[in-house]
Design goal:
Elements: E1 2-6, H1 10-15, E2 23-28, E3 34-39, E4 44-52, E5 55-63, H2 70-85, H3 106-116, H4 123-138, H5 148-159, H6 163-180, H7 210-223, H8 227-237, H9 241-245, E6 252-253, E7 258-261, E8 272-275, H10 278-286, H11 310-325, H12 334-347, H13 352-359, H14 368-373, H15 379-399, H16 415-426, E9 433-434, E10 440-441
Parallel strand pairs: 1-2
Antiparallel strand pairs: 2-3, 3-4, 4-5, 6-7, 7-8, 9-10
């Protein structure tokens, strides 16, 4: 570690170049013992080297920043020297670790910001955005030193791969700045407000065809839990992905045939009653909806959270799709199933306001003044609509069976199960394929059998 005297100024300190390795110390020519230490990371710290009680001590004065410059360091060093000469504690004025908004950096303010947002339904998404994107990039920066150009470049780098996520990250960072502004005197404006914003994503219009619905129904029968039954529930109920995959068993009243999505989990904050068709009840019985696990579909090794692995599952299902159709199939996502349900209900003659009630939409026909005075929940109408749709899905499954000689969808089963599935397909029926261990995998959750092609 090198050390040399220099007439320090704020301008010279700002112009110093960090050493490639190790640290460098620069003595101040004004206050005896005061020096600036700079490491390879570029961090600059004032410290006071003084002999106390026969031993040389290094006393930290503070980190160099716009708020704590050379003048403040010299003033504080003189106070420490005076205290030492008077027999006082040399570490009395040493900076102590601080947390929260007082810490100044984005990372230091994050715990307070998170606590302020803890009651939001979107708190999980806020945490994910900060932990995955914002804290790694800007965590150690002072909010007032981050420019809109930096933010724009950062958002552009995300948008190159995931435009939707880029808009979400920018929105969350802007909300943070809105919260931070009254807490930071030096922060005069929200840099996110004028930062470059990726264009909104093109509205999706993908709807599965009737044949695709039937093929998907049979593919899901071979997918097995948790994704097979869970995606079936998506297809039969039209609810949102997170509402299905993070559902608690306590939300389901099997005897009454009702699924209650509480306000804390509903995206729009409105509690939602979902009537359960017979096909849905059979799926719930097959996965033991009254089991001890609090989650209807739980993650491996955790009974408190829903499953993960959506990407791999969708790759597997799409591959099976293309094998059945013998060609590349237009891309679709789990959210497209919700649009498919809405379109299917309309095709069956369900009124628009009932379809919106099924989806728990508060826009469209239920928005504005109508939503204020129209309090009918359409439960009976929703029940009739979802029962008709479930019957239609089962019929489509009967009409569009899987190819007898195609590769089974999920290859992680035992050889006995695989052979049983192959035999069931070869017979061209929906007979249950049972493994040697006695566990059954039905090619459908229902035994409805109607004839006729679509």
């Amino acid at each position: 570690m090198s050390s040399k005297p220099i007439g320090l100024t704020d301008a010279k300190i700002k112009g110093l170049k960090a050493p490639v390795v190790g640290q460098v110390e620069i003595k101040d020519a004004v206050v005896p013992g005061l020096r600036l230490r700079m490491g390879a990371s570029g961090a600059q710290t004032f410290l006071l080297r003084k002999r106390v009680g026969g031993a040389v001590r290094n006393i930290t004065i503070g980190r160099y920043s716009e708020r704590f410059g050379l003048a403040e360091a010299r003033k504080k060093a003189r106070i420490v020297l005076s205290d030492i000469e008077a027999g006082g504690d040399p570490y009395e004025h040493a900076p102590r670790p601080i947390r929260g908004a007082a810490a100044g950096t984005v990372r230091g303010m994050w715990p307070d910001y998170r606590a302020a947002k803890a009651d939001r339904r979107s708190i999980t998404e806020i945490e994910r955005v900060f932990n995955r994107h914002l804290l790694p990039q800007f965590g150690d920066r002072l909010p007032e030193t981050i420019s809109r150009a930096e933010i724009t470049r950062f958002i552009d780098s995300i948008a190159a791969k995931t435009p939707v996520m880029a808009r979400m990250v920018l929105g969350q960072f802007s909300s943070f700045y809105g919260w931070a502004m009254p807490r930071l005197d030096r922060l005069q404006a929200n840099p996110c407000r004028d930062a470059g914003r990726p264009p909104p994503p093109k509205a999706r219009d993908r709807v599965l065809t009737l044949e695709e619905v039937g093929v998907l129904w049979n593919i899901l029968a071979e997918e097995g839990p948790p994704f097979g039954p869970a995606i079936k529930l998506l297809l039969l109920t039209g609810q949102r992905r997170n509402e299905v995959f993070n559902a608690d068993r306590a939300e389901f009243d099997i005897d009454s045939g009702v699924w209650t999505i509480p306000t804390t989990r509903a995206k729009n904050g409105v509690a939602h009653l979902v009537p359960l068709a017979r096909e849905v009840l059979e799926i719930l019985e097959s996965i033991d909806a009254n089991g001890e696990n609090p989650k209807l579909f739980s993650a491996r090794g955790s009974s408190e959270s829903g499953p993960s692995g959506f990407s791999k599952t969708m790759v597997r299902i799409r591959k099976a799709f293309e094998e059945q159709f013998g060609e590349k199939v237009q891309h679709w996502t789990l959210h497209d199933l919700r649009r498919t349900v809405a379109t299917g209900l309309q095709r069956l003659g369900v009124r628009l306001e009932v379809t919106e009630a099924v989806l728990n939409h508060i826009s469209g026909s239920r928005a504005g003044i109508v939503g204020v005075y129209q309090r009918h929940n359409y439960f009976e109408e929703k029940k009739v609509a979802l029962e008709a749709w479930a019957t239609e899905v089962a019929r489509l499954g009967e009409c569009h069976r899987l190819k007898p000689n195609s590769q089974p969808v999920r290859i992680r089963r035992s050889s006995e199960q695989m052979r049983a599935l192959g035999m069931a397909r070869g017979r061209g029926d929906r007979q249950t394929a049972t493994s040697a261990s006695g566990r059954s995998f039905s090619s459908s959750a229902t035994s409805i059998g109607t004839s006729g092609a679509t």
